[in-house]
Amino acid sequence: MTETPAVRTLLLDVPGWAGHRAGQHVDVRLTAEDGYQAERSYSIASAPGDSVALTVERLDDGEVSPYLVDEVVPGDRFELRGPIGGYFVWEPDGAPDPVFLVAGGSGIVPLMAMLRHRRAAGSDVPARLLYSARTGEDVIYRGELAEMGAEVVQTLTRAQPPGWAGYARRVDVDMLREVAYSPQANPRVFVCGPTRFVEAVAEGLVALGHKPGRIRTERFGGT
Amino acid sequence: MTYVDGNAIGGLLTDVFGRDTTTVSGRCGECGAENVVAALRVYRAAGVVVRCPTCEAVLMRVVAGRDELWIDLGGLLGSGLEPLREAGIHVVHAGQVVDGRTQA
Q1: Predicted TM-score of the model (pTM)
Q2: S-S: A219 plus which of A6, A101, A195, B72, CB 3.0-4.6 Å?
C-alpha cells in the first residue's frame, strides 16, 4: 500500500508469529546472492492482534529500504527477527494517565501502532499526537489519522497547502507548551523520529517540567 | 556522529543473550548512572558502540562478523547488572566478575 511517494506499507504473513506489542520493531535482513547481508530495523505499524504491517520510508542511499519500498512484490520472502523491544511500548494497562505522542516524519509508525491499539482496545485514555512532517504530501496515514479518536496536531515544516491552519515550523518549546498535556497531568510521553528531532523535543519537554522518566524515546538516526 | 537508542540493537542483543534485554538496567562503571539498555546511546560504524547517556562512557562494544560475535561489556558494573545475573547471564571483565556477585 502506497502511503506517500516515498513511503509504503507492507503486510507480512509471518509463519509462527506469536504477536507483538504496540511500539515494537523488527529487524529485516536481506541476503544477496553473494552472501552479503544488510539488516535494518523497522517499526511495526499494526495493532497487536493484527498481522504484521511495516511502514517503510525509502532512503535513497539505503541498502534495504529501496527494495522494500520499490521492488518487493506480493509473495516475496525475506528474513525477519522480532518482535523486539519492551521499553518503547504502550499498553492500556488501566492507568488513567494521558498519552502524548510526538512524531517526526516516519517516526509516526510506532506511535500509529499505539493509536491503533488504543482504538481497537476501546481505551478511553486521553491521547494527543503532535506530528511534524515536511509537506502535506509527506504525511503518512493522512486519512486514518482523523479517525483515531485522538487529538491530532500537525506541523508542516517545509511547505504548507493553501489555507493551512496548523503549525508551519519545526517543533519548539513554545509549540510543546501549547500542545502537550501539562506536566501536572503526568502524561506518558513517547517521542519517535530522527535523532536531532527527538533530542530537541525531549529537551523541550524537560524544560517545561516533564519528568525525564516519563519520556520514552526512539531515535532512528539520520537527518 | 549521530546515535540511536539502545532499543535499536534489541535484536542484536537477543542474539547475544538469547532473550530481550532492552528493559534490563545496567550501571555505568564511570559515573554510576543506571539506565535500561533501551535508553543507552548506540553509535554504529564497523561495529556497535554503546555509551552511557549521562557521561558518554563506553559501556558495551559489539562487533559482528559473518560467523563470529565479539562483545565487550567492560563498561558496565555492579548491581545494575543484577537483572542480567538473575537471568543467568554473568558479566566478566578482565577476568573479574563485575555483575555484583562475589568472585568465585
Answers
A1: 0.90
A2: A195
